[in-house]
């Protein structure tokens, strides 16, 4: 994990050192509005005449949230020399809040301030966000210029309070294909909200490629010479596509259409390359043309819910439990399991025999299962996209991937390398793959981590670019899983925030309703319309559509029971 580093300054000190950030407990997840081409102009923030230096400095940081014209608004608060020297193109540091304290040694026409805050993240190139822990501290020099205070020296880069990020920027989803070209993978980016060319901005970011962290999980479709040339006569135009195959053109079109549609930009979309339609037979495109690639799972409606209780699995339908008519429902030795929408399953079962241990088994409804591997303990299994393989952690440390050979039918199990941050080597109690299989969430010694799944060779996988999320929870995470929209639902042992929503990029952790929940929350699950948790007493559910009554209620059919909720996906 990249360590916090010294920030270069013009004879001044600016550093990120070890610290902690605060966790928002009452902010709502951001909801994107439909795209409106009549975007409000950027706010006008200019130095106020006669403004006292500490207040003028705070105004400068507010103006720094406006990136237009190379931070023209913020530069108005600097002396001409400082404006020429200030490099605002470094990564943007996000802090929880900024404190400003006067330093000794000032004069009538010159003063110094210490600016400090807890770092919560970094906004990188192209608006990609990554969580970061540390402390920001810098010395700012100010001087009187023609009777008005101006900033005379400051560190390179931009510093924003988290509230300014939320007020002035909006997160949008870009989409790139996984390594096999089968699944669209989300790449979340933050863009300045008051821009008039949102569609072109999104397309330009797609042309630049995925964020650095996501690169190991996605494929490159376009040649180096391909470029976006703008919006002309109702068409988004491109050049350099002469050598691009029809298959890759179709994939690229799917990226563009789903990226624009998810931003609220209505179609149909006309895409042209080198003076002709990008797709010869389809000059105008909509999401219906790429429906099978839809990344918006929430449009699929309700999912099938199962429950594991007393060693057997039952289907929950209409408030009643129906034990499965197979070994999952009959043998009463299931410890944990995962089930797909197509009826494939993987389960950890008690090995029996009085010697302890467990067995990982897999199968499909209506078919016989087979034993994959044995160990003392396993985490809950997790399927790759389309049930291509199943992952689990054996004995708390060995990440295993089991896959059936298409040629021989044999099941091969390999150990996955996980490149964890320096100093992280604890017990892995949870491992869950995202819907696309490009990301993984892990709970290691009560801390929440996400990583990127890299395809290094045919059949070979690794977990790379692992980053801790919601570090403020300090080892009190118990359970975690992916929600259909790509965010995380997290269960903790903290009574004041037993369940949280953590955004896919780690940019925020939002405490959900506490009503009727008794920590610890040992299991979590999410369907397109419902959240499920298992607390100290029972299995509870809450609509994830912003219900007026945010009270977790027992799942019909499971009243008074503690069970593992399993949402088939």
Automatic annotation (TrEMBL):
State where it is primarily located.
membrane
**Subcellular compartments:** Cell membrane
Which part of the chain is the GerMN domain? 199-282
> Which Pfam families did the record assign?
Germane, Gmad1, LpqB_N
One GO cellular component from the entry?
plasma membrane
Q: Which InterPro entries match?
A: GerMN, LpqB, LpqB_C, LpqB_N, Quino_amine_DH_bsu
Check the UniProt entry and state the signal peptide residues, or none.
Answer: 1-20
Q: Which UniProt keywords apply?
A: Cell membrane, Lipoprotein, Membrane, Palmitate, Signal
Does the keyword section mention Chloroplast?
no
Q: How does it sit in the membrane?
A: Lipid-anchor
Similarity annotation: Belongs to the LpqB lipoprotein family.
Tell me the protein's name. Lipoprotein LpqB
């Amino acid at each position: 994990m990249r360590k916090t580093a010294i920030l270069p300054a013009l004879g001044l000190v600016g550093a990120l050192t070890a610290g902690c950030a605060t966790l928002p407990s009452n902010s709502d997840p951001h909801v994107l509005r439909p795209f409106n081409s009549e975007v409000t102009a950027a706010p006008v923030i200019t130095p106020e005449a006669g403004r006292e230096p500490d207040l003028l400095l705070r105004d400068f940081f507010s103006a720094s949230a406006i990136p237009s014209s190379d931070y023209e608004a913020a530069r108005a608060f600097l002396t001409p020399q400082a404006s020429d020297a200030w490099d605002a193109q470094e990564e943007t540091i996000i802090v929880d809040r900024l404190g400003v304290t006067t330093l000794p040694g000032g004069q009538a026409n010159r003063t110094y301030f210490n600016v400090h805050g807890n770092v919560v993240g970094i906004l990188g190139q192209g608006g990609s966000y990554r969580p970061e822990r540390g402390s920001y501290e810098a010395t700012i020099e100010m001087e009187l210029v023609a009777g008005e205070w101006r900033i005379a020296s400051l560190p390179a880069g931009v510093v924003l309070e988290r509230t300014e990020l939320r007020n002035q920027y909006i997160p949008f989803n870009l989409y790139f294909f996984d390594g096999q070209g089968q699944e669209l993978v989300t790449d979340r980016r933050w863009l300045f909200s008051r821009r008039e060319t949102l569609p072109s901005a999104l397309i330009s970011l797609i042309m630049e490629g995925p964020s650095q962290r996501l690169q190991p999980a996605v494929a490159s479709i376009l040649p180096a010479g391909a470029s976006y040339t703008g919006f002309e006569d109702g068409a988004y135009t491109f050049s350099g596509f002469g050598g691009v195959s029809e298959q890759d053109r179709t994939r690229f079109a799917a990226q563009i259409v789903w990226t624009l549609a998810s931003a609220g930009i209505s179609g149909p979309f006309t895409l042209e390359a080198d003076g002709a339609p990008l797709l010869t037979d389809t000059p105008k495109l909509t999401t219906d043309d790429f429906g099978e690639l839809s990344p918006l799972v929430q449009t699929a409606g309700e999912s099938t819910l199962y429950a594991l209780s007393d060693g057997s699995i039952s289907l929950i339908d209409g408030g009643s439990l129906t034990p499965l008519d197979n070994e999952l429902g009959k043998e009463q030795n299931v410890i944990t399991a995962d089930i797909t929408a197509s009826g494939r399953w993987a389960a950890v079962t008690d090995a029996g025999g009085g010697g302890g241990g467990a067995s990982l088994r897999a199968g499909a409804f209506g078919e016989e299962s087979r034993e994959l591997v044995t160990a003392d303990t396993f985490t809950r299994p997790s399927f790759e996209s389309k049930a291509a393989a199943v992952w689990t952690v054996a004995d708390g440390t060995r990440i295993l991937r089991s896959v059936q050979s298409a040629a021989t039918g044999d099941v091969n199990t390999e150990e996955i390398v996980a490149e964890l941050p320096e100093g992280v080597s604890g017990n892995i109690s949870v491992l869950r793959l995202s819907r696309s299989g490009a990301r993984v969430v892990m709970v290691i010694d009560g801390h929440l981590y996400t990583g990127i799944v890299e395809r290094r060779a045919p059949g070979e996988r690794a977990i790379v670019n692992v980053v801790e999320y919601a570090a403020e929870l300090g080892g009190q995470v118990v359970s975690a899983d992916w929600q259909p929209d790509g965010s995380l639902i997290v269960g903790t042992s903290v009574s004041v925030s037993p369940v949280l929503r953590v955004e896919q990029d780690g940019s925020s952790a939002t405490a959900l309703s506490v009503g009727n929940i008794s920590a610890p929350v040992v299991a979590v699950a999410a369907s397109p319309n419902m959240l499920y948790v298992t607390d100290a007493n029972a299995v509870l559910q809450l609509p994830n559509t912003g219900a007026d009554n945010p009270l977790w209620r027992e799942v019909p059919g499971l009243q008074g029971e503690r069970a593992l909720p399993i949402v088939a996906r």
